[in-house]
Specification:
With 201 residues, the protein is an alpha+beta fold. The chain contains three helices and ten strands, in the order H-E-E-E-E-E-H-E-E-E-E-H-E.
Amino acid sequence: MTYIVKNGFFLLFFVPIAIGMVACGEADYTPKPRAYPKVNYPEKKYNRFSESYCDFTFEKPAYAKVVQDTLFFDEKPESECWFDMIIPSLSGKIHCSYREIGKNKLDKLIDDTYKLAHKHNVRADYIDDYHIRKPNGVSSTIFEIEGEVASPFQFYVTDSTEHFLRGSLYFNTSPNADSMAPIIEFVKRDIIHMVNTFEWN
């Protein structure tokens, strides 16, 4: 009698578990492809950046809001012409800092910009830089940085004698080259438009 009860317990308890394990093993499980949240891109429109605290103008994306920097690491910035172009719809910003040549040596400003761009070498897949020179006294170098980096696009604009402006693109998200690539490309086109329409006052 005890033997029958033990066998009955075995049949009632362990056999369903064994069947379930076999069934799970035979299931055809296909993982879902990786997906990223849908991004609603703002309309491509531009308006003029012309602020009293800066000695230049350019066409900026209409979706970007300009906010002047009044503090830099709890101290007053070197120039009043430090500002962020905030991009709320894409959780990003373009940080811009102006320096006057004379107070600063041009070679050092350019060298510092290259150093800041190449700080990303540890995580970057590659860094490409290219130059723009316009007949109105505007020359620029643009750094395109691919990989899991904090700032994927940086640039400077100068007239080589008086003015030097540096800009860096940042996003308020963890770096993810795959998911951010189309967003970076979208903003990159607008930054290049900004440089191409740049004029000193």
